[in-house]
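Entry 12.
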Amino acid sequence: MLDGLAKSRIDPKKPRKEGLTCTIDKFQGLDTENMRVIAPFIDLVKVYGALPMLVSDEALRRKIRFYHDLGIRVSTGSTITEFAIAESSLERFAKEAEEAGFDVVEIGESSIDLSMAQKKKVTEVIEAAGLEFQWKVGKKDPRHQLDLDDTLRKVDEAVKLGSKKVVIEANEGYNVGIYDEKGMVKWSFVGAMTNEFPPSTFIFEAPLESQQSALIAEFGQRVNLAEVQTDAIASVESQRRGFLAKSAFGVSYVRKDPEGGPASKFIYYIIKTKHPVEQGELMGLSHLPRRTVQAAVEDLKRQGLVVERNSLEDARKKVYQPTHSEWL
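Predicted 3D structure (tokens):
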């Protein structure tokens, strides 16, 4: 209907490398006919929590075959993986997950803490079973959240271990990970993450439709989203194709002003109004000493408001620009 008017997907065929939409299966009732309609928009289904331990092997295999027949890959959740690790049963878990038909094992540290050596061993066991692994970063408990430094460190470890994508924990979408107590996106936190790693590194859990709309508005159709309920799949795909959903009208694009002293705020104003700009230009325009400019730039990078890139004209020089222009 109205062929040619909707935006085309940049990565239209599965398996996609970007613009992933991941949903969750809690063994809820599914409308099979509607699922067949939206299946082309779903890249991965995660079987919720400890459910694989609570249902019969045949029921689990039947569920996984259903998704495979629709061209959808299936993942365990991190909860059952953490349980298997804590119970020293990882090898058995990986073997049985492969036999059940899972494609991906999600690994997290919500209730456990692993050293880099232990993480490497975990990934080796999963790969030896013929499965892919995907690391999740973050804590489910709002009272025990990772700060920015710990988040970036764990993302870096996951990337070094070979995780193709890194899932960012959101739990119910409130006061966890990149969301505040009202479920709003903490843009300075997200900006600092995408300043260190390309946005394509992440799969952002986004349980609320307002969060899905906000992230698509900021990153465009390439953003990877997880925890999307099945009844919101069509809405997410519509927004990726350029149509506004009802939830999109409540999205706020207002950025926080930079924190810090007058120098940081002044340098941010210059970068925002004249970018890309190199350090020498910042010194000339601000009439501030090099050390002050350097400190201000580092402060703005830390807040996720500014990104640093090599100059296209001279690779030896660095240029700076507002983070927002780099995301789209």
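Annotation: The chain has two domains: 22-250, 262-327. The two ends are 28 Å apart (CA to CA).
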